[in-house]
Design a protein that fits this description.
The protein is an alpha+beta fold. It has five helices and four strands.
Length: 169
């Protein structure tokens, strides 16, 4: 049997793989919700999201270590790199902004495909975003301690999702 699949540019191929896995994730969430209920779907989604984020961050850190004394700008840059490994730019739009304190920064997500898809499938009601578990997994995987909070959430009606993190010594 010969390989008849067309050669795609690597970036397009990676985006297709990401989209496929996220489609799998969405269908998995819907199946768990249908069979076991919304609470179980939210709980399992958060648990799995943290695990996957930690694993990806651990693998990333082997290639691009984050220093023990990393600055908030360096940690924020690592998080942006991790987001690009997990989501294409078309899937998630995010930016990092500095806050007055040198150890504190904010991540602003202005577009997220998951919320779009949940809204389209009429499944947004009752959905609990696993964002904090995702971020916790990333922080664990790169080996930094932070306090992290949700400032605004699109799921709750805000125009953007805004997270504020502060490095702990």
């Amino acid at each position: 049997m010969t390989d008849t699949a067309p050669d795609l540019p690597l970036g397009k191929e990676v985006d297709l793989v990401r989209q496929g896995w996220w489609l799998h994730d969405a269908r998995w969430y819907q199946a768990v919700k249908s069979r076991f209920g919304q609470e179980a779907a939210n709980e399992l989604n958060a648990e799995v999201m943290r695990f996957v984020a930690r694993r990806i961050a651990t693998v990333y850190t082997r290639q691009c270590p984050v220093a023990d004394n990393a600055t908030s700008a360096e940690v924020a840059a690592a998080l942006e790199s991790l987001a690009r490994l997990m989501f294409s730019r078309a899937m998630v739009r995010l930016d990092t902004t500095d806050v007055d304190d040198e150890n504190t920064w904010e991540t602003v997500v202005s577009e997220h495909f998951a919320l779009r898809m949940l809204r389209a499938s009429r499944s947004l009601a009752g959905y609990q975003c696993p964002c904090m578990q995702l971020r916790a997994g990333w922080f664990e995987g790169i080996g930094v301690r932070v306090s992290d909070e949700t400032v605004e959430c699109m799921r709750e009606g805000a125009a953007v999702c805004r997270f504020r993190a502060c490095l702990k010594s």
